[in-house]
Amino acid sequence: MIASLITNNIVDEHVDSEHVLKESKTATLFQTPEYLSGWSLFFLPDKNEILKIIVTENEKPIGIGIFRRQNNRLTFLGTDQIGDNHDLVTDFGDIVAVLGKEQTVWQEIIKEAKAHGIQEMVLDYVREFSPSFEVLKALGFVVSEMIDHGQPDPAPFIDLPKIFDEYLLKLKRKERHEFKRKLRRLESETYQIVVSQNPNLDIDEFIRLHKASTGDKDRFMTKKMEGFFKQIVRVLSPKGLIDLLFMQIDGKNVSSIISFVWQNEYWLYNSGFDRDYTNLAVGFLLKALSVKYAIAKGYKRYNFLRGNERYKYDLGAKDERLYKMKINF
Question: Which domain holds residue 26?
Answer without folding.
Answer: 2-147+324-328
